[in-house]
Design brief:
By secondary structure, the chain is mostly helical. It contains 5 helices and 2 strands. The termini are far apart.
């Protein structure tokens, strides 16, 4: 069974570790007890939307970015789960909706690579 709270906790932990921050620092900034934040990161507690907002603010991460990463992890977990359940059938390739045109200003005209969990996307600044 795929537990959303576990995936969410994994993503929160990765975000915190990418910044080189400790549980103590983030819990203090978010005004959440260290123990509770630890349980959320380990997927043992369900985080309310208010708590997620406080943690995202403390990490200076948009909640939409956090949820997008959780969504990507969930999609991969579902594919792995369905592949394990029916190994004789091919696993469909996930299709992501196109975001449409995105305008970026102030970016030097050089090639940038954005790495996502399941793929690498090349972005060329115009």
């Amino acid at each position: 069974m795929i537990l959303l709270r576990r995936l969410l906790g994994d993503v929160l932990r990765r975000q915190r570790q990418r910044q080189g921050r400790t549980l103590r620092e983030v819990s203090s900034s978010a005004r959440v007890s260290l123990g509770y934040l630890s349980e959320v990161e380990r997927g043992q507690k369900e985080a309310s939307s208010e708590l997620l907002s406080a943690i995202c603010d403390a990490l200076d991460v948009r909640m939409s970015e956090l949820m997008r990463e959780v969504s990507d992890e969930l999609a991969l977990a579902e594919l792995a789960h369905s592949a394990a359940a029916t190994p004789s059938e091919p696993v469909p390739t996930p299709v992501r909706p196109m975001l449409g045109s995105v305008s970026v200003t102030g970016v030097p005209p050089e090639r940038v690579t954005i790495k996502a969990p399941a793929e690498a996307v090349d972005v060329v600044a115009a």
